[in-house]
Design goal:
The protein has helices at about 15-45, 55-60. The chain is an all-alpha fold.
């Protein structure tokens, strides 16, 4: 009889029990958050209030809203290796 090795080993080691329980926990949390999101979406299906009227001074010169927030000037980061350390020169 050949012994099961590696991923084919059906014995429950502590490591595999922890891994399985973490997967179950993440699935449970994801399911609960989806249920909460669906409940709040259902509850907030109220009619939105009428938009507020703008004052006369603001309607004379409307300013366009920025489509994206202003980002700080981009500074090129030094190249790194996959481990995160600086490459050897």
């Amino acid at each position: 009889m050949v012994r099961a090795v590696g991923k084919h080993d059906r014995r429950n080691s502590m490591k595999m029990k922890r891994r399985k329980s973490q997967v179950n926990k993440k699935a449970r949390l994801k399911r609960h958050s989806a249920e909460r999101k669906a409940a709040t979406a259902q509850g907030s299906a109220k009619k939105s209030p009428a938009p507020k009227k703008a004052s006369k001074g603001a309607s004379a010169a409307p300013t366009p809203a920025p489509s994206a927030p202003a980002a700080p000037p981009s500074v090129p980061s030094p190249p790194t290796t996959p481990t995160g350390s600086a490459p050897a020169a």
